[in-house]
Protein 1
Amino acid sequence: MTPTLVDSHCHVAEPEFDADRDAVLARAAAAGVTTLVCVGATGAVERNLPAVALAGRHGDVQVFATVGVHPHDAITLDTAALDELARLAAAPGVVGIGETGLDYYYDHSPRSAQRDAFAATAALARRMGLPLVVHVRDAHAEAADILRASGVEAGVIHCFTGDRDDARRYLDLGLDVSVAGIVTFKNADALRDAVRTIPSDRLLVETDAPYLAPVPHRGKRNEPALVRVVADAVAAVRGEAADDVAASTAANARRVFRLPG
């Protein structure tokens, strides 16, 4: 039997899926994607509520949730919002904190606010004993410094876009690295080089759906079923069997997020 897969980072609670969410989850199951980590951090703290509500069993697919405030919205993370995150993180089916981090490409929130929110959210994850889901763009060295200072011991660098040196920074801190559809993009040679160096027991795969659909679906709405395309691409880059990558990345996601099964 082909090993089942875990989509370690998607946003299937978002409005982009309201019209056909059940069909999307059915296609995931048909593709052997039986477990999803639905990330709720798509705005201010209240935007986590749909992900928390979606957590649970949906036919042959089990959905888990994480809660956080995206770096784009870091300016909204005040004390009240952080308290609400802590409350949501205790809800059934919530398995992580995030996504949080630094996005110096878009800079939708001031960098100082991003750094403060990242540090505060990392501290919350450590306090609650939950893994941290981290978003980093154009800020790998600084993100690693904040993670090192936080003492966070478990987490995932989601949709990793760095090079092999950036990957090593995170691995040395004890974090795992997740790869999305960007690994299939023509201009992602540095990422593919990094993917070859990540130990098989520290590598995850994800879709980040509805964003970043892999080639040949690029430009269309992404969905969890396509994490198999990502896993197959990772296998090709690493010169490994697709079934081996499916099995190891699923096991790694279950370890990091302490998922059953």
Protein 2
Amino acid sequence: MRFVKSEEAVSPVIGVILMVAITVILAAVIAAFVFNMGGGAEKAPTSSIVVANNPDTTEYDLKISHKGGDLLKGGDWKLSVVAVGDAPQFNNSVSGSDLSVGNQIVVNTTTTIASIITNSTVGPVVGSGLASNTKYDIKLVHVPSNAMLIDTVVEVR
């Protein structure tokens, strides 16, 4: 009995397996870019922001204080202050200013609001005033990452 060695079929089989593997890898890379899995999303800033009644005034108002963490660049954040139960309404006139550590936003009206206090610079104040013994829903969103930095309810007294 004689065995005949034939290696003719080995090369085409290996070639087909390599072609399939390359196609699968290429499809995975393309899918990662198409579905934005390549890591291009912006990271949300880390900030310590506190919302409370403003005890420094006799008006009905709130004070939003940046206590520490990353700078919130002007235009990269938006603020909503509405009575609890109302749909959020984001104000862009205030968010044009940088909000850095030590800065405060004094809110004495609903979302058409506020003034940012930065070394005696005060922004616009418009809108309907806040009411005593009313709960307000405050939201602060970082726009590029769409991260909610504040989502809290505060009662004005």
